[in-house]
């Protein structure tokens, strides 16, 4: 039966595909986005009404829709959502609406604070290189609504679905064949009361598993290894199989990294690590998660062909992306623009060769930067802080006794100051690391735009434009 859906958060890729899906089912869409510059495109005008950005008023809209539906970025605590629920309106998320149309598909779900997109891409590549159809989707790649809209095109595919905490708040009946919980660090604290509530939203991924489907989780989040959720740890009530991964020692149930090789549980060498497109200890940990998930789905005889498969893996841009240039061979430039949390920035710092000149800043997420300051102090790194949150970051650094930083208006000035410091000190080698520990939204539209700008700065190191390549 056709209904009238009020879609909040309709702008962007997910909102556009979701609106098309709703209309394909005969529903009328009241299209709303808080961004006044965004307009609906490519939709059936006969089943569409655009609600202006300043017109989301309950009294004016309460009798004009049957169902309130949300894209993932809209908080459940939004006043309009709370009122709708209080008044008895049906409220449904994009993930929950799409779930019934995905039941015939095999799905790997991936959540965590950092490394979700990298692990999603690695898993999908492993599947494709094994001879099957792997599709990145959810919070990264194709929106779930796009897949639900074109189900015939995904017959036989294995969906590798990145799921944010937002998406896991109300995932409906989404059914997973394997689930990955990578890690947990403070993030989105403007949406959650604290790290425990944020982490619990992510633990919802375990509830989505089909019977006997494995949960693949970092050992750091096991009940015996964390002080979070004391007495009410979600795993205490989980009765499915659990595969834990020791991300420090790079060891899991079926795979481990020993020296320069990927080995099986019996320590037989499966593939060399040298020459992989991905770099850094943290990305090898992400690879272990992906290997366990793909192996659990028996996508193919993975182990027998692993050497040839991993050699063909490619890295995502803006995720600890090494950029080679020939003008200043003593400088190693790393683009980790996706590092929008302090934990992600710490991980990048720990994986970088000293001395490190770290470019930090942007629009903050409400995090404390004290732990990051302690790690910078321990590494004897120099921080170059720019953007909207630079004074907050500087304050936290001073409070823990880290003073080796400079303040800058923008990324351009921070970058060139880092280059000048390396040259002035006559260093034979140095790492210039962009790992901002903040979002990009004060000066850039996205972390991708910020990362591309960083790459352009590297390319422009000579008047003729430095030649560079991504490793």
From TrEMBL:
Catalytic activity of the protein: UDP-N-acetyl-alpha-D-muramoyl-L-alanine + D-glutamate + ATP = UDP-N-acetyl-alpha-D-muramoyl-L-alanyl-D-glutamate + ADP + phosphate + H(+)
Top EC category: ligase
InterPro entries (UniProt xref): Mur-like_cat_sf, Mur_ligase_C_dom_sf, Mur_ligase_cen, MurD
Alphabetic keyword roster: ATP-binding, Cell cycle, Cell division, Cell shape, Cell wall biogenesis/degradation, Cytoplasm, Ligase, Nucleotide-binding, Peptidoglycan synthesis
Pathway assigned to this chain's UniProt record: Cell wall biogenesis; peptidoglycan biosynthesis
GO BP term, example: peptidoglycan biosynthetic process
Localization of this protein: Cytoplasm
Pfam families, A to Z: Mur_ligase_M
Positions of the Mur ligase central domain: 110-293
EC number annotated for this UniProt entry: 6.3.2.9
Residues annotated as binding ATP: 112-118
The keyword Cell membrane is assigned to this record: no
Major subcellular site: cytoplasm
Magnesium listed as a keyword: no
UniProt superkingdom: Bacteria
GO CC term (a single one): cytoplasm
Single Gene Ontology MF annotation: UDP-N-acetylmuramoylalanine-D-glutamate ligase activity
Recorded family membership: Belongs to the MurCDEF family.
Function: Cell wall formation. Catalyzes the addition of glutamate to the nucleotide precursor UDP-N-acetylmuramoyl-L-alanine (UMA).
Cross-referenced PANTHER family: UDP-N-ACETYLMURAMOYLALANINE--D-GLUTAMATE LIGASE
Name of the protein in question: UDP-N-acetylmuramoylalanine--D-glutamate ligase
Gene source species: Turneriella parva (strain ATCC BAA-1111 / DSM 21527 / NCTC 11395 / H) (Leptospira parva)
Taxon lineage: Bacteria, Pseudomonadati, Spirochaetota, Spirochaetia, Leptospirales
């Amino acid at each position: 039966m056709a209904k009238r859906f009020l879609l909040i958060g309709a702008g962007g890729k997910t909102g556009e595909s979701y609106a098309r899906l709703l209309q394909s089912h005969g529903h009328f869409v009241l299209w709303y986005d808080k961004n006044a510059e965004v307009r609906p495109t490519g939709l059936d005008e006969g089943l569409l009404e655009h609600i202006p950005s300043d017109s989301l008023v309950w009294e004016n809209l309460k009798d004009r829709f049957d169902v309130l539906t949300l894209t993932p970025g809209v908080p459940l605590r939004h006043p309009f959502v709370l009122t709708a629920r209080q008044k008895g309106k049906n409220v449904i998320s994009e993930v929950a609406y799409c779930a019934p149309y995905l039941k015939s598909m095999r799905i790997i779900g991936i959540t965590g604070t950092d490394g979700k997109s990298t692990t999603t891409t690695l898993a999908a590549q492993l599947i494709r290189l094994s001879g099957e159809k792997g599709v990145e989707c959810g919070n990264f790649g194709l929106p779930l609504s796009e897949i639900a809209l074109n189900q015939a095109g995904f017959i036989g595919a294995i969906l590798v679905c990145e799921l944010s905490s937002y998406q896991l708040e109300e995932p409906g009946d989404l059914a997973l064949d394997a689930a990955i919980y990578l890690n947990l660090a403070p993030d989105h604290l403007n949406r959650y009361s604290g790290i425990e509530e944020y982490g619990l939203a992510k633990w919802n991924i375990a509830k989505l598993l089909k019977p006997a489907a494995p949960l693949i989780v970092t050992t750091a989040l096991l009940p015996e290894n964390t002080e979070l959720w004391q007495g009410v740890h979600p795993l205490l009530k989980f009765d499915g199989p659990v595969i834990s991964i020791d991300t420090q020692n790079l060891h899991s149930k079926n795979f481990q990294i020993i020296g320069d090789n990927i080995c099986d549980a019996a320590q037989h060498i499966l593939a060399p690590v040298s020459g992989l497109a991905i770099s850094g200890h943290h990305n090898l940990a992400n690879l272990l998660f992906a290997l366990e998930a793909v192996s659990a789905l028996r996508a193919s005889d993975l182990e027998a062909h692993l050497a040839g498969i991993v050699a063909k893996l490619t890295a995502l841009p803006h995720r600890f992306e090494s950029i080679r240039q020939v003008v200043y061979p003593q400088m190693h430039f790393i683009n980790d623009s996706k590092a929008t949390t302090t934990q992600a920035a710490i991980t990048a710092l720990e994986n970088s060769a000293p001395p490190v000149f770290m470019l930090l800043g942007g629009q903050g997420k409400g995090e404390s930067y004290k732990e990051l300051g302690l790690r910078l102090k321990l590494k004897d790194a120099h921080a170059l802080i720019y953007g909207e949150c630079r004074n907050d970051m500087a304050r936290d650094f001073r409070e823990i006794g880290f003073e080796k930083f400079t303040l800058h208006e923008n990324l351009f000035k921070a970058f060139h100051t880092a280059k000048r410091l390396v040259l002035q000190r006559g260093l034979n080698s140095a790492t210039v690391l962009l790992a901002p520990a903040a979002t990009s939204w004060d000066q850039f539209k996205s972390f991708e735009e910020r990362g591309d700008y960083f790459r352009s700065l590297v390319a422009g190191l000579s008047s003729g434009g430095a030649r560079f390549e991504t490793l």
